[in-house]
Amino acid sequence: MASRKRARPSSTGGASASGAATPTITLSGGEACPTKQVALWRSGRLTDTTVEVDGRTFVAHRLVLAAACGYFERHYDHEHMRDADHPKLLEHVTAAAFEPLLSFLYEGACTFDESLLAPVLRAAHYLGVAPLERAAVGALTERLSPSNALTAWTWGEELELPELAEAAKEAALQNFDEVEKIEEATLAQVQALVADDRLDAKSEEVVFSAVVRFAEAKQPAEAELFGLLRNVRFAQMNRAFLHGTVRPWPQLQSSAGAHLLLEMVAPVASGPAQQPRSGFGGRLMYMIGGSTTNSGDTHISTTEIYDTKTNTWAAGTPMPTTRQNTAAAVLGGKIFVLGGYPSTASVVALDTRMGTWAAVAPMARARMALVAAASGGKLYAIGGSSHGGEPLSSVEAFDPLTGAWAEVASLPIPRVHAGAAVLEGKIYVIGGRESTTAQSVLGSVEVYDPTTTTWAAVTPLGTRRSGHAVAALSGKIYVAGGRTTRIDGTSQRLSSVEVFDPQTNTWANVAPMSTARSAVSLSAVGGKLYAVGGLPAMESQTMATAETYDPQQDRWEVVASMAQARRSAVAVCVPRA
Fold first, then answer.
1. CB atoms within 10 A of CB 238
2. What does the pLDDT look like over 423-440, one tens digit per residue?
3. Least confident residue range of 288-292, 358-362, 400-404, 535-539
4. Which CATH architecture has domain 281-569?
5. What is the CATH architecture assignment of 24-143?
6. Is the pLDDT of residue 297 over 90?
7. Which of 1, 219, 372, 465 has its CA 20 to 30 A from that of 286?
8. Is the full-model pTM beyond 0.85?
């Protein structure tokens, strides 16, 4: 019998030359042979074939190899190879990777140094050991990070493993700031990353800098480079960066480069035609204030912070005073909370970096159940009601440079319990009620242009709503939940969701939430929507539950619940600093 050179896999990892423990990994999911057969193999008894890999010889049983491995089944079944005892593996398989693979064929599991995970995957793929291949892909996916995402993506493409390639791409998109060795990526990979709206980076300047590193390393043809640059959102860049870094770049000094840059930067003069990437929205959502009871008579000051990457909630700094039916918007990296019940004109701002609240100049008028929006460097307080009375049509704007509020053009229709969102600098105010009666629920939508200080009507909602939630995502506006009035005058809570496309001026229905919610809060974070809290259909109990909507899949999924149930709160995401 030929000698068998096999290194036993270590269950503890052994020790490296430096004395540190060598990390090991265990993969399972195969079918184990009978214990006696494994013992015979380990002792080298009654084996009937040998396999040569990298000059090393491994003994085995033909039936075991052929039954569990497509490569060996074809080898031993082939007419002129049927009597061959020594198949040689010369390509794609190393001896270090074949050793744990052979253990997997006999025992249904194997343990080996973690550094061999990629070679074991290649060996399993090449030899047709599907269970080991699946286990290795799963292990690699669990270990994806910015440091190995591009390498794993390449493995996925080379081995035709789309699930691995897609997972690696997702890892690179979600942590683009930290992705290593962009210079070693392929043109197709870099193109796929910078063209994706979900790319999560600190700024578009970071995206451009990565493209520069790639281009200077790989020197793609001009047409390929310009095709790549057309996916960079120059209109979202700082002017100083455009003039000081982008314009002087040598690859843009040709007449074609100058023309491309002029074409891409032109929208800056008239407002950003390109939207910020949805992945730039940060990862933290703040839930602020609200009420813990169905009747709304218990208002709170607490804040909870949701981390979309860990699916966990944590306590934040509470507001100085309790309030519900407030409005909130982000301006200058701070969260401004306006008005609310008990009816007040006060405004407070949260510095999310410091975790501190500070008073801001109050509005001219006390407002509750109002909406707020930030556009053009100003903060707008819109509609609502004063001291629980009739809805208001008045609108105030706060200028942080002067620290003062001033009235601007009023709403064409008074609104309370409406919703608002901003697209391309314009403020859309949606639904609500125009009087205190239940029959006054609105479906109309009005848009305010701060540059012309005028309001205009756009296509109304498909379903009239009050107490609903609104958020902008990827250039569209989503409206979720709320209450509507039936033909017989009774009220109905809604789970339905509508989306507005400003390019076509149309509304369309998308997948409904898992449960009806009114007085619900909605925020866009990292390319998804999060609906939190509110009142359910039967108004049995204020909710702490939350769910997220993925527009790519048109599907809602339940996520972690808040520690405290609340309704009529505000949900805000602060973009990354």
1. 12
2. 999 999 999 999 877 678
3. 535-539
4. 6 Propeller (2.120)
5. 2-Layer Sandwich (3.30)
6. no
7. 465
8. no
How many other β-carbons are positioned within 10 Å of the β-carbon of residue 503? 7
CA-CA distance, 153 to 65, in Å (whole number)?
Answer: 30
Angle at 512 between CA 508 and CA 513, to 5 degrees: 140
Query: Can 24-143 and 197-266 be said to share one CATH topology?
Result: no
Q: What is the pLDDT of residues 23-37, one digit of tens each?
A: 999 999 999 999 999
Confidence band of 421 (pLDDT split at 50, 70, 90): very high
Strand 88-89's sheet: what is its strand order? 56-60, 49-53, 88-89
Across 181-218, b (16+ Cβ under 10 Å) vs e yields ebeebebebbbbbbebbbbbbebbbebbbbbbebbeeb
- Residue 278 to residues 282, 469, 525, 528: CA-CA distances in angstroms? 9, 19, 8, 8
Rounded mean pLDDT of 364-370?
96
CA distance 322 to 365: 19
Reading the block at residue 148, the tokens are 């190995």
Q: What is the CATH number of domain 197-266?
A: 1.25.40.420
Q: Does an H or E element contain 67, and which?
A: helix 62-68
